[in-house]
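INFO batch 0412 | record 1 of 1 | parsing
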Amino acid sequence: MHQLLQWLALPQFGLSTVFIVALVSATLLPLGSEPAVAGLLQLNPDLFWQAILVATAGNTLGGAISWWTGMLAHKAWRKARSLRHANDPVQESGATPAQAPHQRSRHQRIARVWLRKFGAKACLLSWLPVVGDPICAVAGWLRLPFWPCVFYMAIGKFMRYLVMTATILHFWPAGSLAG
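INFO prediction complete | emitting tokens
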């Protein structure tokens, strides 16, 4: 990992580094992309809007990958469940699934109700730390519509980069960390 970060080191690769770091940080891997954006802008403040847009594109693509991961995981889970219960007479009769709604944890029930209630709009919250990336995966698991989810992810992530980067640059203006 250290060699990869050295290879992508700023300013040698600039916007491409921001894109890759933003994409990876939008998956379930614990990586923050704001330092890469702020670092680039410390070195080249004229790239403010390009950096915001490139980071938004990378982070949104990462969210879309998480959506597909959730959707594919759900398909695999359903297939494995159907194979496991293929010869189960209770399942063949149309009885409730192995984990009925009353058997789910309180948090699982609340999350499912909340995501179903708000649908793709819930992906506006994909910018949140800790819970944002799993929201994208759960949206895929619940098979919420892909393109509306991506649209709302992009809005949320754009607003995050705009606010976070402007805040960082307000407290540490471009060039203040250099030399």
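INFO post-check: The CA atoms of residues 31 and 155 lie 20 Å apart.
INFO record closed
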